[in-house]
Design brief:
The strands form 2 sheets. An 8-stranded mixed sheet has the order 3-2-1-4-5-6-7-11, sandwiched between helices. It has a single domain, classed as Rossmann fold (3-Layer(aba) Sandwich). The protein starts with 5 loop residues before the first strand and ends in a 6-residue tail after the last strand. 32% of the residues lie in helices and 25% in strands. The longest helix has 24 residues. The protein has 6 helices and 11 strands. By secondary structure, the protein is of the alpha/beta class. Helix 1 runs parallel beside helix 6.
Length: 220
């Protein structure tokens, strides 16, 4: 198990509720991490307020200021690498990242997605689950690769879909689970237990199933 504090950069585009979950876990000493910077591609979002409230350095880098995705990602990498992170956490960062970026951080970048991947990659996941008549929905943590929402899965949590659920109520159910499983996955990584090897996720040197670990089966 790792004995050092894992340096983390968190990337956001909005409210930053998962950022807050990580901040809370850090400050309660549940996670051996130090969030050394928050990066947003949008100004005036709640996540930046959260960073300021906890004295975390924050950077706003608007993608609109760059002619290409490659130029934007190159600037992102400069800012991130200057922080010396061990882990990059995507927490509602709503930009498609270039292969050059994802390869640069391969094995040390995590994302959380509001569906039971591989179902419903991309946007509007809650409505898509409802439209499909699914009985359950959920959230997934995965390592980031060049494939959009397609990297090796680490951990999933499920929620039941009620007959009166709409996209908003289902999103609220899913978000509660995000705040549980994202800190847990970051904890595993920061303890040196979670790794990416040969494009597969490993926990405690054991290859995880393709669907990752179900929260109900997770050993804390």
């Amino acid at each position: 198990m790792s004995s050092f504090t894992t340096r983390v950069v968190v990337m956001i585009s909005g409210s930053g509720s998962n950022l807050q979950a990580l901040i809370d876990a850090q400050e309660s000493n549940e996670l051996p991490i130090k969030i050394c910077a928050v990066i947003s591609n949008k100004d005036n979002v709640k996540g930046l307020e959260r960073a300021a409230n906890h004295n975390i350095p924050a950077f706003v880098i608007s993608h609109k200021a760059f002619p290409t995705r490659e130029d934007f990602d190159a600037r992102l990498m400069e800012i991130i690498d200057a922080q010396g992170p061990d882990l990059v956490v995507l927490a509602g960062f709503m930009r498609i990242l270039t292969p050059g970026f994802t390869e640069h951080y391969e094995g040390r970048m995590l994302n959380i997605h509001p569906s039971l991947l591989p179902k419903y990659q991309g946007l509007n996941t809650h409505q898509r689950a409802l439209d499909a008549g699914d009985k359950e929905h959920g959230v997934s943590v995965h390592f980031v690769t060049a494939e959009l929402d397609g990297g090796p899965l680490v951990l999933q949590a499920r929620v039941s879909i009620a007959a009166d659920d709409n996209a908003d109520t289902l999103a609220a159910k899913a978000l509660k689970q995000e705040h549980v499983i994202y800190p847990l996955a970051v904890k595993w990584f920061s303890e040196g237990r979670l790794q990416l090897q040969n494009n597969r996720s490993y926990l405690d040197n054991k290859e995880l199933p393709l669907e990752g670990i179900d929260l109900n089966d997770a050993e804390y």
